[in-house]
Specification:
Elements (H helix, E strand, L loop, with lengths): L8 H20 L12 H31 L9 H22 L9 H26 L5 H27 L4 H10 L1 H29 L6 H27 L5 H27 L8 H25 L7 H34 L17 H23 L3 H26 L24
Helix pairs in contact: 1-2, 1-13, 2-3, 2-4, 2-7, 2-11, 3-4, 4-5, 5-6, 5-7, 5-8, 7-8, 7-9, 7-11, 8-9, 10-11, 10-12, 11-12, 11-13, 12-13
Bound molecules: protoporphyrin IX containing FE.
Length: 445
């Protein structure tokens, strides 16, 4: 049992959650958009705390646990997890420092930006190589593993473009990087949010939803269709985008074509997920699955919003509201929902796995009290949706109130995660002597 546990996944989750709470506090204080421009350095600080600190760290932690189970092979190099975590944390702090330099909040240490890029590329590099070799060593990996591979390729593109921007902003790289910086930001943002985070989340959700709802797996051919459409979308954005930037022609055609292909991907994914829900054997859905559905609903709402805004030709004016709903409703909502189950599952595996068959063991669900967590999740999603409306209506004060509500709701959810880890909600009879709570921040294996 212990062999299936990733020692440091919980540490990644803890660091990720700390960054999420910091981002929410900054938004509550009115730091960054909508109190500063979308491309202002303060906004870039918040964007990267969310994208790298929260979402990418949580995703890396989850993949270290999930990929070996998915391909039934041990992780290539367990020992790389902590160095990667340190490199990513140092790199992120330097990147935030670099953005603060651009905003005049720190002295002119512009060298922070390329240094940050170096650390981040090294950190993400360790994660990518470790996971890619793990998948490669499995002879016939399952469909969802290919989504992870597509996600990792997108991560390389995101980090590559981000590093190029960092060098350009520090005055290195000449005219070519300057042109890339002027026109290439949508490529970086789409490869990161759409490729790395969304494609990977899709792949993981196929397996986790099937597992937690006791559904039959989606037909391999259908998964392949979704995967091809999704990879083609990101490939078109990155390769096509770079080509038109090099040719100095307009990028709009590439972005609109990729948008249509992206819609087809999401329609195909939606069909797969509906078939998972319909074939489920667990009739009473657990909280994590219900909340994942709320995350998926946020994705659907974001897509509808984008279509309506595009038809009314107001998309550029409301791009931030769309990005906010994708980052906090879809991606963060799904990650928080899945963390609620994964933390309980890993805690159960670590605590009761070795004693299985020898003592009376609780079910995974006995480690949590869903009624208590449900109200925090409801508060979280309601505040994210209110925040989106506030951005659409251009109401910054209302946005700050929504951000405060998100912070409180997140703290409420985190408290439940800590209680789960501490076995605080397990009935006394199921905690005989000899059974003690695992370490909060790592697995003792
Ligand atoms: C090696 C890692 C990364 C580096 C060095 C980096 C660097 C940068 C830089 C320098 C910019 C600003 C360009 C400008 O406006 O002048 C930027 C923008 C952006 N980055 Fe990153 N980035 C990295 C990773 C990521 C990741 C993983 C994501 C998402 C998952 C991401 C999402 C974004 C977004 C959405 C913007 C546009 C923000 C806005 O215009 O408000 N970045 N990045």
């Amino acid at each position: 049992m212990g062999a299936n546990l990733s020692k440091w996944t919980m540490s990644y989750f803890a660091v990720a959650i700390a960054w999420l709470i910091l981002a929410e506090l900054l938004m509550t204080m009115g730091f960054g958009f909508p109190y500063a421009a979308a491309e202002a350095p303060d906004t870039l600080v918040v964007v990267h705390i969310v994208c790298i600190g929260w979402l990418s760290m949580a995703m890396c932690g989850a993949l270290f646990q999930f990929v070996p189970v998915l391909v039934a092979k041990p992780l290539f190099a367990e020992g790389w997890q902590i160095p990667a975590l340190v490199l990513l944390t140092v790199g992120l702090v330097a990147l935030l420092g670099g953005f603060m330099v651009l905003g005049g909040r720190l002295p002119a240490w512009l060298w922070l930006l390329p240094i940050a890029a170096l650390f981040l590329v090294a950190g993400f590099g360790l994660v990518v190589v470790d996971l890619a070799i793990t998948v490669w060593r499995a002879r016939a990996p399952m469909g969802p593993a290919y989504f992870v591979v597509a996600g990792l390729c997108s991560l390389c593109a995101t980090a590559g473009l981000g590093s190029a921007f960092a060098c350009a902003l520090a005055g290195q790289g000449g005219q070519a990087l300057g042109t890339l910086l002027t026109s290439g930001i949508p490529l970086h943002a789409i490869a990161g949010l759409g490729g790395w985070l969304t494609l990977t989340a899709m792949g993981v959700s196929y397996r986790l939803l099937a597992m937690f709802m006791l559904s039959s797996d989606v037909d391999g051919r259908r998964i392949r269709t979704t995967l091809i459409a999704g990879s083609a979308t990101i490939g078109l954005v990155v390769a096509g985008g770079l080509l038109v930037i090099a040719m100095e022609t307009r990028i709009d055609v590439v972005l609109v074509s990729a948008g249509l292909l992206g819609l087809a991907t999401l329609a195909s994914y939606g069909r797969d997920i509906l078939s998972l829900y319909h074939s489920r054997k667990r009739t009473k859905l657990e909280l994590n699955t219900k909340m994942a559905a709320w995350g998926l609903s946020s994705l659907v709402a974001a897509v509808l919003l984008a279509v309506i805004l595009a038809i009314s030709r107001t998309f550029p004016a409301h791009l931030e509201a769309f990005a906010f709903l994708i980052a906090f409703g879809w991606l963060s909502g799904l990650v928080l929902a899945k963390l609620y189950k994964i933390v309980a599952f890993l805690t159960w595996l670590e605590t009761y796995g070795p004693a299985l068959g020898r003592i009376a063991t609780p079910r995974v669900q006995d480690l949590v009290i869903e009624r208590r967590a449900a109200k925090w999740f409801a508060a979280y999603f309601l505040s994210v949706w209110s925040g989106t409306v506030a951005l659409l209506l251009d109401q910054p004060s209302m946005f700050r109130i929504a951000a405060f509500a998100m912070t409180v709701a997140t703290l409420g959810i985190v408290r439940q995660l800590i209680r789960t880890r501490r076995l605080a909600d397990v009935a006394g009879s199921l905690r005989p002597s000899g059974i003690s709570a695992p370490h909060l921040l790592y697995a003792s294996i």
